[in-house]
Amino acid sequence: MVEKLEKIISQSQNIVFFGGAGVSTESGIPDFRSVDGLYHQKYDYPPETILSHTFWEERPEEFYRFYRDKLIVKGAKPNAAHLRLAKLEREGRLKAVITQNIDGLHQAAGSKTVYELHGSTLRNYCVKCGAFYDVDFIANSTGVPRCPKCGGIIKPDVVLYEEGLDEQVLSGAVSAIRRADTLIIGGTSLVVYPAAGLIRYFRGDHLVVINMQPTNADAEADLCIAKPIGQVLSEDVVVDD
After folding, report:
1. CA end-to-end span of the chain
2. 229 is in an annotated binding site
3. Residue 82 CB contacts under 8 Å (≥ 6 apart), including other chains
4. Cα–Cα separations (whole angstroms), residue 182 to 25, 89, 206, 219
5. Residues 6+ apart with CB under 8 A from 38
6. Which domains, from first to last, does the chain contain?
7. Entry's Pfam families (predicted)?
């Protein structure tokens, strides 16, 4: 399986990677949809409710308590998958990473062209004056974080449920997928829309799915690998041409 993947990679000139939570779980970042993820918790509401725009507006204290506790992960480092993707970009084979993750680990690994569909915890802005604050400001604040300059609420640059995706990010991701000769889908169950719908723009030669569970794209894929993605992308395989 991995040998077949490496052969596809070696023959491709325009790879795009589309990834989700499974890419970061090997860096110790939990997937809040997994059974042992964030569901068995001390909160009165499911994560999807807490991470909604309405909840952020109506119960900001509870929102930020959950957000600090669950979405800001200290000390997470890029894993083998992030590092291999960055290497493929340096080699000129991979043209873009499209991610549903909000942890910034692709950039930390060295990837340059990254479309963050759901934003990033590393960027935070005052809703009143637009001042920028880093992740540590939110992590070290208590209650509802307020802007020292104007007193406005500081909101993470993360797309909450009920909010639309950034149009520029979306159009960049669509055009990257349209141009790709190979699309590798990894670590995502393809259930979160509109992000999951982007793969329908792919018209290239090879569709590869690397995910522990079945996905909606498996039927169309040339290759499906049910293994942890870091393991798959780090396996050293010699490919015979």
Report:
1. 16
2. yes
3. 23, 27, 105, 106, 108, 109, 111
4. 24, 13, 5, 16
5. 30, 32, 47, 70
6. 2-29+78-118+165-234 (3.40.50.1220), 30-72+120-158 (3.30.1600.10)
7. SIR2
Distance between CA 189 and CA 202 in Å, rounded? Answer: 17
- pLDDT (tens digit, 9 = 90+) per residue, 152-188? 999 999 999 999 999 999 999 999 999 999 999 999 9
Residues 23-68 have pLDDT tens digits of 999 898 877 655 444 455 577 888 889 999 999 999 999 999 999 9
Considering 82, 106, 118, 206, which one is annotated as catalytic?
118
Gap between the Cα atoms of 182 and 17, Å rounded: 8
Per the annotation, does 82 bind a ligand?
Answer: no
Residue 58 CB neighbours (<10 A): 10
Q: Are the beta carbons of 94 and 17 closer than 8 angstroms?
A: yes
Known binder of ligand: residue 129?
A: yes
| Length of the chain (residues) | 241
Residue 118 annotated as catalytic: yes
- C-alpha–C-alpha distance, residues 50 and 214, integer Å: 27
Please indicate if the annotation marks 184 as binding a ligand.
Answer: no
- ∠ CA 36-19-121, nearest 5°, is 75
